[in-house]
């Protein structure tokens, strides 16, 4: 018999039932997927902005414009799934 704080185990999987919003066993939670995608996006932009600065000889004063321009390039190259 299950204790008061324990969740019941389903007969088919032997796993506790999945609550709404939770990832199923073996799946990556949506929150982690978003975090991984966000980190990959940031890394891509940082590297591309670095290459822009390097090509210019690291002349100061262009850091923000390099970043913003590279963000636009990223969005064009990687359209979000929500946008049709």
Short description:
With 84 residues, the chain is an all-alpha fold.
Write a concise keyword list for the protein shown above.
84 residues; mainly alpha; 49% helix; elongated
Structure report:
The model has no long low-confidence stretch (mean pLDDT 79). The chain is mostly helical. α1 packs across α2 (63-77). The chain has helices spanning 30-55, 63-77. The protein is elongated.
- What's the count of strands? 0
The SS-based structural class is mainly alpha
Low-confidence stretches: none
How would you describe the oligomerization state of the chains in this entry? Answer: single chain
Percentage of β-strand residues: under 5%
- What is the arithmetic mean of pLDDT? 79
Query: Biggest β-sheet: count, sense, barrel?
Result: none
Basic shape? elongated
Determine the number of helices (DSSP H or I, runs of at least 4 residues). Answer: 2
Strand and helix layout:
Elements: H1 30-55, H2 63-77
Helix pairs in contact: 1-2
């Amino acid at each position: 018999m299950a204790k008061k704080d324990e969740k019941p185990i389903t007969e088919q999987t032997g796993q506790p039932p999945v609550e709404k919003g939770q990832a199923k066993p073996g799946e990556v939670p949506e929150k982690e997927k978003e975090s991984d995608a966000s980190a990959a996006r940031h890394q891509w932009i940082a590297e591309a902005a670095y290459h822009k600065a390097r090509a210019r000889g690291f002349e100061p004063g262009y850091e923000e414009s390099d970043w913003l321009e590279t963000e636009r390039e990223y969005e064009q190259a990687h359209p979000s799934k929500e946008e049709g």
